[in-house]
Design a protein that fits this description.
The chain has helices spanning 2-35, 39-80, 84-125, 129-172. By secondary structure, the protein is an all-alpha fold. InterPro entries: Oleosin.
């Protein structure tokens, strides 16, 4: 008798633990659904990261090309011509290279900053904006496609019925 009592107590504790575990799992799933970013943010990040990376790569390549060109050209200018002309040319090229490199990097950061502020503005306004209108148009197109499909199905059924009636009429005559 005592064994059955302990068995029922253990079974009750097990079922309670399972209920608590299921409740914790559903709470965690709800929390994760609340914290997942909207699709618009994921798409924006997917567009921002490659664009910013590409601009930063261009800035780095320009800087590297400038430094290498300066390192190669400076000795040639010093050996082949008077000192002041190649020095001025090398200084001008180096300055231009650094400016272009900085401008490309600044452009990349400005583009990223603008896109992030635009997304925040859309989110703060609460309006769906372009994405909401696009979703609405796609939904309208899908509704029209569904109606056309139904009409086409009815037309095919009518033709099949007419053909069958015609076939039955031929065999009986």
């Amino acid at each position: 008798m005592a064994d059955q009592h302990y068995y029922h107590q253990a079974k009750d504790h097990t079922s309670q633990a399972q209920q608590h575990g299921q409740q914790a799992l559903s709470n965690m799933a709800g929390y994760l659904q609340e914290k997942t970013p909207p699709t618009q943010h994921i798409i924006a990040a997917a567009a921002l990261i490659p664009l910013g990376g590409f601009m930063l790569v261009l800035a780095a390549l320009t800087l590297t090309g400038t430094v290498i060109g300066l390192a190669v050209a400076t000795p040639l200018f010093v050996i082949c011509s008077p000192v002041l002309v190649p020095a001025a040319l090398a200084l001008g090229l180096a300055t231009m290279g650094f400016i272009v490199s900085g401008a490309l990097g600044l452009t990349a950061l400005s583009a990223l900053s603008w896109m992030i502020s635009y997304i925040r503005q859309i989110r703060a306004s609460g309006g769906p904006g372009i994405m909401g209108e696009a979703r609405w148009r796609v939904a309208q197109g899908i509704d029209r496609l569904g109606e056309k499909t139904k009409d086409l199905g009815r037309g095919i059924q009518d033709r099949a019925y007419d053909a069958r009636a015609h076939e039955v009429g031929r065999t009986t005559a």
